[in-house]
Design a protein that fits this description.
It is a single chain. The protein has 492 residues and is an alpha+beta fold. 24% of the residues lie in helices and 23% in strands. The protein has a domain of 287 residues: FAD/NAD(P)-binding domain. α4 crosses α5. The chain starts with 28 loop residues before the first strand and ends in a 5-residue tail after the last helix. The structure holds flavin-adenine dinucleotide.
Length: 492
C-alpha cells in the first residue's frame, strides 16, 4: 500500500499507487447557478417520494420477504421486527409472526444513521443496531465537534470530495433549518477556515484549482491581514494564508442525536445491542446475532461499524482499516478574552494540527487536535488517559501557534479512533462473499462532514441507484491491504 503523503497538515507530497479510479463517467447534472457539478437532488427533494419497493426488493434479492428466524447459531429470539399475531393454521393455536426489517444497519454513526434516515423516510423499514446507542462516547461520530471544509487538494480523490463537501455544507444548513427551530441552538456554525503554511505546497495549488473548478469562494490573505484579523495566531513562521469563508464546524454528537431522533420519528427502530454476523448460506448472510444469542434478520444488512469493522468483519476488514487514536484538547482562554470564541476566530489548519473556536451554546473551549497513539482495540482503549508526553507536546504546540493559551488550563480532552482505509477514500461496497451485505466506512478522518450526502448516496446504492457514478469506483473495497507497519502508523 502506498499512501498519499501530503495533506492539509503539511505532511509530504502526494504519491498514490492506485490508478485513479475517480475518473468521471457521467450521471451528474450541471448546476445552473455556477460551473460546479453536484450529485442530483437536495435534502428536500431526496427525502421525497417513496422508492419503488418492487425494485428495492429485487435489488435486495429478497423476493420472499422476511427470512425465517432461528437458523442462526445460538439464535433464540424473535428478530427485530414488528410482531403480529396471526390466526394459526386451521384450528391450531395462534402463531406469532415477525416482520423483519428490510434493512438492518449495524452502527449508528455518521455512515449508519444518515443512511437509516434516508431509507426510512423513503418508506424502507430499517432497524438500526448499535452496541452503545447512537452518538455514544466511544463512536468516532460521538465527538463534540467536527470541521466541515472543502479543501481537499491533498487527496487523490480531492475533486470529488471537494464537490461532496460543498454539497454537504448546503445540506448541513438545510438540516439545521429542519431541526434547530423553536429555540434549539444551531448545529452548524459558519466559522470560515484558515490554512496557514510556511511555503507554497502542491496541496494549496490543487485545492485552489478544485475550488476554481467548482466556483467555491476563497481568498489569499496577506499575512498582515491575518495578524490584523486574528492577532491571537502566532504567524511568524508563515508566509501563506488561504481562507475559505464558507467552511464551518458542526456540533457532532448533538447532530447525530437529531438524525437518529428523526429516524425514529419516521418509524425506524433503534436497538441497543452488540451484534456479530450469523450464518451464511448460499452466499447470503442469514442474520446477525446479539451477545444474548438473539437472532436478528433482514433482507439486506449494512455494516457501518466505524473502527470496529476489523473486529466485526475480520476476514475482509482486518487488513483494510487503520484505527489509530486521535486526541483533542479544549483550552480555556483567559477570563474575559472572547477572541477564541465563535465568531471571532475561524477554524484552522496549521502544520501538525487542526482546530476551531469555542462554539455556543456551551463554549467548551478552544479546540485543538494534534497527536494521538497507535491502534488499539476500540472496545478496550481508554479515552481519558493521555500520556504526559502528549500533554507536553500540545503545550509546546500552543506556545508556538497560540501563545496566549500556552499556559491556560485544558478544560477537557476527547479521543476517538480514526478509521482510515488503504486509499484514504470511503468504502461503500457489497461484501465480497455475502451478496446481501454492504460494508460502509473508512471515513479516513473526514467522513463526518459528508454524512448528509453519504447517507443519501448509500441509501440509493442499496436500491441499485447511483447518485454519483463518478465517485462510485473510488468507494470500492481496495484490493490493497495495510502491512503491519503501516497499520501502526499514527496518522489518520
Ligand atoms: C480525532 C478525530 C477528529 C476528526 N475530525 C473530523 C473532522 O473535523 N471532520 C470530519 O468530517 N471528520 C472528522 N473525523 C472523522 C469522522 O469523525 C469519522 O470519519 C466518522 O465519524 C466515522 O463514522 P462511522 O459511522 O464510520 O463510525 P462511528 O461513528 O464509530 O460509528 C460506528 C458505530 O458502530 C457501532 N458498532 C461497532 N461495532 C458494533 C457491533 N458489533 N454491534 C453493534 N454496533 C456496533 C459503534 O458503537 C459505533 O456507534 C475525525 C475523526 C477523529 C478520530
Amino acid at each position: 500500500m502506498t499512501t498519499i503523503r501530503e495533506d492539509r497538515e503539511g505532511r509530504s507530497p502526494v504519491a498514490g499507487d492506485r490508478e485513479s479510479r475517480d475518473r468521471r463517467t457521467d450521471g451528474r447534472e450541471k448546476r445552473t447557478d455556477g460551473n460546479a457539478t453536484r450529485p442530483r437532488g437536495s435534502l428536500e427533494e431526496d427525502l421525497g417520494p417513496a422508492l419503488d419497493r418492487r425494485r428495492f426488493l429485487g435489488v435486495a434479492g429478497a423476493g420472499a420477504g422476511a427470512m425465517a428466524l432461528g437458523g442462526l447459531p445460538g439464535a433464540s429470539g424473535s428478530g427485530s421486527g414488528e410482531k403480529r399475531i396471526q390466526p394459526g393454521p386451521e384450528g391450531g393455536p395462534a402463531v406469532v409472526q415477525t416482520r423483519s426489517p428490510e434493512v438492518l444497519i449495524v452502527g449508528a454513526g455518521a455512515f449508519g444513521a444518515w443512511t437509516a434516515l434516508y431509507l426510512q423516510r423513503r418508506g424502507v423499514q430499517v432497524t438500526l443496531v448499535d452496541q452503545h446507542g447512537p452518538a455514544n462516547s466511544r463512536a468516532t461520530s460521538g465527538g463534540e465537534t467536527r470541521g466541515v471544509r472543502t479543501s481537499y487538494g491533498d487527496r487523490e480523490h480531492g475533486p470529488i470530495w471537494t464537490r461532496w463537501a460543498a454539497e454537504s455544507i448546503r445540506r448541513w444548513k438545510a438540516w439545521d433549518d429542519e431541526v434547530s427551530g423553536a429555540g434549539a441552538a444551531p448545529l452548524f456554525y459558519i466559522t470560515g477556515d484558515l490554512i496557514l503554511r510556511p511555503e507554497a505546497e502542491p496541496y494549496l495549488r490543487r485545492t485552489t484549482s478544485q475550488w476554481d473548478d467548482l466556483a467555491i469562494p476563497y481568498e489569499w490573505l496577506e499575512m498582515d491581514e491575518v495578524r490584523r484579523r486574528w492577532p491571537i495566531i502566532g504567524t511568524d513562521e508563515m508566509t501563506l494564508a488561504l481562507y475559505e469563508p464558507g467552511a464551518g464546524v458542526v456540533r457532532a454528537r448533538r447532530a447525530m442525536e437529531t438524525v437518529t431522533q428523526a429516524f425514529q420519528r419516521a418509524g425506524g427502530e433503534i436497538r441497543v445491542a452488540r451484534v456479530m454476523p450469523g450464518e451464511v448460506s448460499g452466499g447470503r448472510l442469514q442474520g446477525v446475532v446479539t451477545d444474548e444469542g438473539e437472532g436478528l434478520t433482514a433482507d439486506t444488512y449494512v455494516f457501518a461499524c466505524g473502527p470496529w469493522l476489523p473486529k466485526v468483519l475480520p476476514g475482509v476488514m482486518a487488513d483494510r482499516l487503520r484505527v489509530p487514536m486521535g486526541h483533542i484538547y479544549y483550552f480555556g482562554p483567559p477570563p474575559g478574552d472572547h477572541r477564541f470564541e465563535f465568531p471571532n476566530m475561524p477554524s484552522f489548519g496549521i502544520p501538525g494540527s487542526t482546530g476551531w473556536p469555542a462554539l455556543p451554546p456551551d463554549f467548551r473551549g478552544f479546540r485543538v487536535r494534534t497527536g494521538g497513539r497507535p491502534p488499539e482495540d476500540p472496545d478496550l482503549s481508554s479515552r481519558a488517559e493521555i500520556s504526559p508526553e502528549s500533554f507536553q507536546r500540545i503545550r509546546e504546540y500552543m506556545a508556538r501557534w497560540f501563545p496566549v493559551l500556552a499556559d491556560q488550563p485544558i478544560l477537557e480532552t476527547r479521543a476517538c479512533h480514526y478509521e482510515s482505509s488503504t486509499d484514504r477514500n470511503f468504502i461503500v461496497d457489497v461484501h465480497p462473499e455475502w451478496e446481501n451485505a454492504w460494508i460502509t466506512g473508512g471515513g479516513s478522518a473526514e467522513a463526518f462532514k459528508q454524512g448528509p450526502l453519504l447517507g443519501d448516496y448509500i441509501a440509493h446504492r442499496l436500491v441499485g441507484m447511483d447518485l454519483d457514478p463518478e465517485a462510485t469506483p473510488g468507494f470500492r473495497l481496495d484490493d490493497d491491504v495495510f502491512t503491519d507497519e503501516e497499520r501502526r502508523e499514527l496518522e489518520p
